[in-house]
Structures are given as C-alpha cells and as structure tokens.
Amino acid sequence: DPTVKKLEAMAAAMFGKEAGLFVVSGTMANQVAIMALTQPGDEVLVGEKSHIFNLEAGGLAAISGVQSRVIPTDEKLFDPSIIESLIRPRGVQSPRTSVLCLENTYDLNRGIPITPEHQLTLADLAHKHGLAVYLDGARIFNAAVALRAPLTEFARGIDALQFCLTKGLAAPFGSLLLGTKEFIDRARWVRQRLGGGMRQAGFMAAAGIVALETMIDRMAEDHANAKRLAQGLAAIDESLANPDNTLTNIVYVEFAAFGLTAEQVAAQLLQRGI
Ligand SMILES: *Cc1c(COP(=O)(O)O)cnc(C)c1O
Fold this sequence. Notes:
The chain is α/β, with parallel strands linked by helices. Helices cover 45% and strands 14% of the residues. The chain has 12 helices and 7 strands. It has helices at residues 2-15, 26-37, 51-54, 59-64, 80-86, 116-128, 140-147, 151-155, 181-193, 202-214, 219-236, 262-271; strands at 19-23, 43-47, 67-71, 97-103, 132-136, 160-164, 175-179. The chain has a 7-stranded mixed beta sheet, with helices on both faces. Helix 2 packs across helix 9 (181-193). The relative contact order is 0.16.
C-alpha cells in the first residue's frame, strides 16, 4: 500500500535509518526484531524493568527460542561494567550473547529519559563484543522532547529500533521498526511468519503520518501537564508524588503513607465523580 510505504520511508528518514516496517504493535516490533537478530539458543541482555522482559507474555522464549539474561539497574541507567560482565565469552559450552536490548524512555512506571550519549556508550561496548544493539523506543519521542535532543541522536550506534504511534503520539494503531535495508527485509519475512502482514493498511498508516506530522511538538504540553499534576499532588502531601522525578508524561503516585491502595483511592474518586 503506497501510504504504508510513505509512512515507513518517513519514519526511517526521521531517525536516519535506511528502511522501516509498519507493524501492528510495539510488542510485535520487539518480537520481530529479536527473531530477526537471533538464532534459537542465543542469549539476549534485557533490562530488569523492561517491557520486552516483563510484559510480552514470555515472547522471547516462546517465539524466538532465546534465553534472557537480566541486567540489574538502579532507577535510571544501565551500568556499562555490569553489562560487560554479563556478555559471555564465546565457547563450545556457552550460549551466544547476541543482542543488547535497550529501552528509552526506560522503566514503564517512571518514563526515565536516557541521554543519547549514555545509549552510545552502551552500544559501543556491545559492538566491541560483537553484539547487535536493539532499542525499544516505544516512547522515544518523550525522551527526545524531554532532553531536547534530535531524534537522529537516539538512533546513533543503534542497529535496530522501534517506536509506537499509539502512546504519546495518539494514533489509533501501529508501531514502526527501523534499521538497515537488510535487517528490514528479514524483519518483513519474520512479520509474515507471525501473521503480521497487512493488506489495505493505508488508512491506518495515514493516521500514523498525521501523528508524526502534528503530535510530536505537543508532547511538551503532556510533560508540562504531568509536572503540574505531580506538583499539585506534592503540595497536598510530599509523599504523594515527586515532581523532580516526573520527567516525561508518567506521574507515579504513592498512597502508602495514607494507608490506601490505588484501588481504594480510585473508588473514592469515582464516588466524587472524578
Ligand atoms: C507500550 C510499550 C511497548 C509495547 O507496545 P504495544 O503497542 O502496547 O504492544 C513496548 N515497549 C515499551 C517501552 C512500551 O512503552
């Protein structure tokens, strides 16, 4: 479909990559990417709070037949020395460590933006050991807007990445997987295997084009609203939210000091028509 091709080319150009592939969801993009980059029995390095490890129904094992090795993190960043310690030397008894999976913004509960410089440090390290580097950039536009850095910076040193049209960009459907032409050719074949090939998808791609053309600049408004909400909550009680940690569009609210669960708070708000 010509509109799908237009969206794929547009997305690739925005990130300075050779080619793009329109897929159903961020989860499908992640799973297609790993299947295209690995062989069964490989090991992939994944963040302990990452979407690909926690929220994809065990897809890495079930679909690609790879084993996951978890990178422990402090709240924000992967430590290069920890990553280096997790990369296995090649050997007749060892699984092959083949992909480093990054995520930006990181940690679904908090939406922490990671600088392109830090990504590049980690990518250089992975490449030195012969790994491919994959970036789950479902929320990469939030990172770019929050850090005021160009999108192409976030693609530097990254072999393949995906972003979601359906998060802050507010389109009804789809994600884009980006990389070299060779990678995307293989990913297109894997997408077919997973039942993700599409026919008259142009009208869904058109919504994606509108999202890319009109929504990115408005993300700053989301971030400002999130900050304002966190500040308002913190003004009620400091333990409720931390505006300094509200860096993108996710507000993390903690009711423990009030002895209330989130469900109880939601029920009480509903009673008051909120
Ligand atoms: C939402 C999200 C995904 C998955 O996207 P879906 O379209 O819901 O499948 C993957 N990774 C991250 C970081 C996300 O925020």
